[in-house]
Amino acid sequence: MDRNLALEVVRVTEAAALWAARYYGRGNEDLAGKNAVEAMSKVFSTVSFKGHIICGIDNPDSSLCTGKILGNAQHPEVDIALTPIDGHATLAQGGYNTISVIALAEYGSMLNAPPIYMEKIAVGKDTRGVIDISQSPEVNIKRVARAKGKYIDDITVCILDRARHEELVNRIRALGARIKLIKDGDISGAVATALDDSPIDMLMGVGGAREGILSAAALKCLDGDMQARFIYRDEKDKELVRNMGITNLDKIYTLSDLAKGENIMFSATGISDGELLPGVRFMAGGAKTHSIVMRYKTHTIRYITAIHRFDYKPVY
């Protein structure tokens, strides 16, 4: 894939973030999501590729649902995982840590995950290879602490603030590690584990499978590490996985299982301030956005701050 494609894709996350940010704190997550999807779709239509959405919006009527094809060319042919807003409810309530995210990879190289849950554990480069999701939280935290040369009580674990994590939180507290609870945005939490200036050492817990694929793409670009496995609420969830051609329902997925190959790109733009990026800042006649763009092939990480003048470009 052409390296310029990465800079084309950041235009897509910027557009979604700009529009979504207009609905920050206004209490209507459906309207925020609808307009972010529209903005993202419009910019995607200008990108020169043939993009297959393998992890998209759950609604089959959406222009960004799984299975749709995006772009205005036949080559290159790529897989796309996306979420116009990671953290709809949090954005609507005026909360923290919401972003717009896209990952690209060569066609057929990202896991075509169904819209169910995954248990995940993610870490950065300095602890790559030490995690094992089949082991207990206590074992994994001790391994990470040892690899980082830290005391256990100096390790910070990022966890989604959900009732399902009550036991996990209690066990980590009993062990003595620190916990960063987030309302939404486990993509930001996972990526933050691999950034040098981040206070987060690990991400643990259960979140969306789509977010797991996006996190894996970013962590691969950052030389981090991740393991995941599907969580089944009922027989319907198991059937969704079987329909993807997966026969081993208990398989543990490594980073390379989730995002294969060298041609992987990741782009995220902040909507509201968060662990990964500042949010959109509106000003007279325009706005400022903050994005991160990564390529695995070159291990390039770019932080892009853009000023958007609405008199000279579309307001989606």
Short summary of the structure?
The protein has nine helices and 14 strands. With 316 residues, the protein is α+β, with helices and mostly antiparallel strands. Strands 1, 2, 3, 4, 11, 12, 13 and 14 form an eight-stranded mixed β-sheet that branches. Strands 7-6-8-5-9-10 form a six-stranded mixed β-sheet, with helices on both faces.
Write up what this structure looks like:
- The chain has two domains: 4-108 and 263-309, Fructose-1,6-Bisphosphatase, Chain A, domain 1 (2-Layer Sandwich), CATH 3.30.540.10; 117-258, D-Maltodextrin-Binding Protein, domain 2 (3-Layer(aba) Sandwich).
- The longest helix has 18 residues, at 4-21.
- The protein is α+β, with helices and mostly antiparallel strands.
- Helix 1 packs antiparallel against helix 2 (29-44) and helix 6 packs parallel to helix 7.
- The protein is built from nine helices and 14 strands.
- The strands form two sheets. Strands 1, 2, 3, 4, 11, 12, 13 and 14 form an eight-stranded mixed sheet that branches.
- Helix content is 30%, strand content 28%.
- It is globular, with a radius of gyration of 19 Å.
Beta fraction of the residues?
25-35%
Supply the number of structural domains: 2
Low-pLDDT ranges: none
Helical percentage: 25-40%
CATH hierarchy, class of the largest domain: Alpha Beta
H/E topology pattern: HHEEEHEEHEHEHEHEHEHEEEE
Rg for CA atoms: 19 Å
Give me the count of strands.
Answer: 14
Total of helices = 9
